[in-house]
Amino acid sequence: MKENRHQNAINEALRRLLAGDVRKARTLSESVPESETRRLMIQLCQNLEGLNDYANEIAQGNFSVPPPQRDNFLSMSLKSLHSKLVHITWQIGRVAQGDYQQVVEYMGSLSDGFNEMTRQLRQRREAMEYLARHDSDTDLLNRNFFMRGVYDLINARPEEVGVLLCSGLDNLKHINDTFGREAGDKYIRQAARIFRVFGDNNGLAARLSGDEFALYLHGFDDAETAFDEVRTFVWEQMNKCVFSIRGVVHKFRASVGVALYPQDTYFVDELIKFAAYTMYEVKRRNRGSIARFDSRIYSKNKDFFNKQVALETLLDERGIHFAFQPIVDMRDGSVFGYEALMRAKIPELSTPLEILDIAENQAKLFPLEKLTFEILFAWVEEQIRFLNGRKVFFNIISDSFLDAAEMLSIHPGYKE
Predict the structure, then answer these.
(1) How far apart are CA 64 and CA 196, in angstroms?
(2) Residue 380, Cα to own-chain centre: how many angstroms?
(3) What are the two backbone dihedrals, phi and then psi, of residue 342, each rounded to the nearest 5 degrees?
(4) Between the CA of residue 19 and those of 23, 46, 171, what are the distances in Å?
């Protein structure tokens, strides 16, 4: 009878085990006399309890939980999964820190999702890094990374001669006025391809702003050879290229200023400044040609040139704000509206008339006008509740007006 009772207890323990009630199965197993069957049942229950507790901790995200004892053969697969989850968690942490080289090859479809995520993040970072270094319209280097690249070339071989060119397109205004801004943008992108050819010949090419480009070539033996070779190369490339607009063929016309390292200066920022100054002098005196920097002429005219550079800074850094003068209704003294008066944040440019004079001299009236619209419209949008229906007036440049498409890009609610 006892044996039957003990066997029934074991059978009930097995049923409880199969039903998932491991603790009750263990209690029933412990109630029978010592035997091999009792020992094996208790060990099985202990292993299942350990496995269950281990699985629950992992399911709750506790990956630091210690695994069961080595003799728990039931947990081997779960230990392997635990190890993989710990490693992929570490890899996710690496990705969060910007390490997009992590690859998972051991988690089936989860691997595919992880790897696709890192691929997209890597592509996004590469795109952001590229945009941080390049001008978005032309794919040439921007000013900051161009300067850094020039510094690196000089620093690597300081005993060799370098040539820095600044070039401004001479007929962009004519193309804009005749064929529209879209054609002008296309003209700029086509010109950028020419400068990219220079950059592919062990040089650096950049778009400094608007219609102005820069090129640096390093590794010449002497200044005269450097200037002659670069001048010949530049004009050969320029003369090869034409630009067609609505069936009308235009040649690229550019004014080019050149400064030499180390003859003119040892400093990168001064190289750009001297080359840009020479370019402006070429535009003023002999458009469509190329000239070397002359320190004697620069000493006489550097004040005006510094203002030209200040204007470039103003446009690049959106360096204007407004003073608002109330317009009063004389009948009752109420404020009808405000006149927005442009002011520069750049100390070298003291008055609006000075800004306009320099902008006109450098063919920068249109970008100045566009910047004025953008900043003023943004201010009005921010202050619309406080204006309470009052008007805002501002002066425009009569020969540099924005067309309807440009107005819509700045202010979607614009109506002709």
Answers:
(1) 55
(2) 28
(3) -70, 135
(4) 11, 16, 87
Residue type for 33, please? P
- Rg of the chain over CA atoms, in angstroms? 37
User: CA 245, CA 185: separation in Å to the nearest integer?
Assistant: 12
> Taking a C-beta distance cutoff of 8 angstroms, is the pair 244, 236 a contact?
no
- Provide the sign of the torsion angle of the four alpha carbons 265, 216, 142, 403, taken in this order: positive
The residue length of the chain stands at 416
292/212 Cα distance (integer angstroms) = 17
Show Cβ contacts of residue 343 under 8 Å, excluding neighbours closer than 6 positions: 320, 321, 322, 323, 352
- Other C-beta atoms lying within 10 Å of the C-beta of residue 59: 8
Q: For residue 35, give the amino acid letter.
A: S
Q: What is the mean pLDDT of each run of 10 residues along the chain (416 residues)?
A: 68 74 76 77 76 79 78 75 78 78 74 76 76 84 91 93 90 79 83 76 83 90 87 73 71 87 93 90 84 84 76 85 87 86 84 82 80 85 84 74 63 52
Q: With contact defined as beta carbons under 8 Å apart, do 120 and 176 qualify?
A: no
Q: For residues 284 and 168, what is the distance between their CA atoms, to the nearest angstrom?
A: 12
* Structural contact between residues 166 and 257, judged by C-beta atoms closer than 8 angstroms: yes
The answer to whether the CB of 153 falls within 8 A of the CB of 162 is: yes
In 262-365, the DSSP E strands lie at 290-292, 320-328, 335-344
* DSSP string for residues in 128-162: HHHHHHB-TTT-SB-HHHHHHHHHHHHHH-TTSEE
For Cα atoms 140, 291, 146, give the angle at the middle one, nearest 5 degrees: 25
Contact of 313 with 320, CB cutoff 8 Å: no
Q: 153, 204 in Cβ contact below 8 A? A: yes
Q: Are the CB atoms for 54 and 66 separated by under 8 Å? A: no
Q: What span, in angstroms and rounded, lies between the C-alpha atoms of 139 and 193?
A: 9
State the angle between helix axes of 352-361 and 295-316 in degrees (0 to 180), rounded to the nearest 10. 110
